[in-house]
Amino acid sequence: MREIKFRGVGNKGNLIYGQYFVLPSGEHRIANYFTGENEIIDRQTLAQFTGLFDKNNQEIYENDKIKFDFDYSNKTFEGIVYFKNGCFYVDDNCPQGHLTLGCLIENKRNVEII
Asked: pLDDT tens for residues 9-35?
């Protein structure tokens, strides 16, 4: 089971990681896992953790730009991670069309956040 957590840019311009919630007033906030404090975030910067890690063991979030390769090609592809219909995909210009992020990780395609 994957850990459900979010990241967003706080009102001080810093990245906040933790649990996302919305107050009745309409404020979007993330409660920091480490300090227990919560901070208002810019809703446009909200991204969910995919539960997957790149080749450098960095957490991959929605809207991260990643690069990856294929065995049959010397080309490196780039794409943006997005969530749709219960799955994380990579929006890229690869001939195969949009790929699932899990498939890239599982098949060791040298996925790296850029």
From this structure: 998 888 999 999 999 999 999 998 778
41 close to 29: Cβ distance less than 8 angstroms: yes
Say if CB 114 and CB 65 are below 8 A apart: yes
Q: Where are the domains of the chain?
A: 6-45, 52-113
Query: What SS3 state is found at 44?
Result: helix
Contact present, 98 and 107 (Cβ < 8 Å): no
What is the greatest pairwise CA distance in the chain? 53
> The whole model's pTM is what?
0.84
H-helix or E-strand spanning residue 92: strand 87-92
What is the spatial distance between Cα 4 and Cα 18, in angstroms, rounded to a whole number?
9
C-alpha 85/C-alpha 21 separation (Å) is: 21
Cβ(73)–Cβ(82) below 8 Å = no
